[in-house]
Amino acid sequence: MLYDRSLKIRKNNSFFLFGARSTGKSTLLRGLFSPDEALFIDLLDQEVFGRLLVNPSELNEMLAGVSKAWCIIDEIQKIPALLDVVHQQIELKKFKFALTGSSARKLKRDSANMLGGRAFLFRLFSLTSAEFGNDFDLESVLAYGSLAKVTEFKEPQDKVLFLKSYAETYLKEEVLIEQLIRSLPPFKKFLQIAATNDTELVNYSNIARDVRSNPNSIMNYYSILEDTLLGFFLEPYHTAIRKRQKHAPKFYWFDTGVRRSLAGTIDIPVVPQSFEYGSLFESFVVNEIYRNLVYSGKSFQLSYLRVDDNIEIDLILERAGLPTFLIEIKSTTYVNLNHISYLKLYKKNFANSVTLLISRDKVRKKIDETLCLHWSEALVELDLVK
Fold first, then answer.
1. Does the pTM of the predicted model rise above 0.70?
2. Of 95, 245, 316, 346, which is most buried with the most CB atoms under 10 A?
3. 79 & 119 share domain
4. Residue 246: pLDDT above 70?
5. Which of 123, 141, 165 is the last residue of a domain?
6. H or E segment at 167?
7. CATH of the domain at 81
8. Each residue of 352-382: pLDDT tens digit?
């Protein structure tokens, strides 16, 4: 099934398109560019990969033989040296390029030529709820995620099999082949723990003890997850950045299905009112907000506030010139006064702020100045979807 992607790319300039594997980068570009207007080069094709790895300048010869305006190169991080050739071609103004990648790690490590602003940068994520349209099913997305490839399978068993193979493919092709780590066993154990701890504060020392490693290695592991686009950090809120560094961040996996697969829970049904359901719902909502904010192209800042182990505001959304949103996320289908207690307590500390409770309750309410909305309506209130 083809979806109307929220990411809108203008075809007036070369660009990078980064996204985790199976988010649909190639499919998006093949829908955007016809074979008549673009030369497609897939670096997952071993024959093409081998030739260009040995001699990156052969790209010049390949381009000389076509009369098309665009060249699309899939998985550019596999041969960073190609970017020097791309740079030259852009300077000659003979071609525009669309360059996809599922990892920025190798490009950073090899100090790759990132084209000095000559190419725009776009990111593609798992499908948003809006991209599903009427086909959206919250329970399915919480259980199996919303990778574009997952949506091709109708049976839950097939979704599970795909997500299990996805985890193995990630370990083999993104981590081992690219030599991002020296030893696989502790990293595999880390992945399970990090996936289990999705939406929770990151405690490097505790994870290091469980993995039998050290905190610096755990920090490096998390940076690998970021660079391979499997998630993002949510930093603690504070008006002084100096003080912010004293508090632990949270880490949010980019997809609930990938998270459950790596955590080893993908075979277990997701049960409403369980702890896992609440965590998955929070992850889903935060990712929905994050994806739509990135797609909007507008500047924003997301954080969370934790006063102590018992008091937390799940999400703080700041955008220039707009009120600060203090957001609490609950998976309940019936909200009441108890659910807004922390928002009510800390609203006075934020000038020009709006408190918002996001849940599965379909009834729009306002409780003590806090707007209580179903998650889909909240996205509209935040001006993230139309």
1. yes
2. 316
3. yes
4. no
5. 123
6. helix 156-169
7. 3.40.50.300
8. 999 999 999 999 999 999 999 999 999 999 9
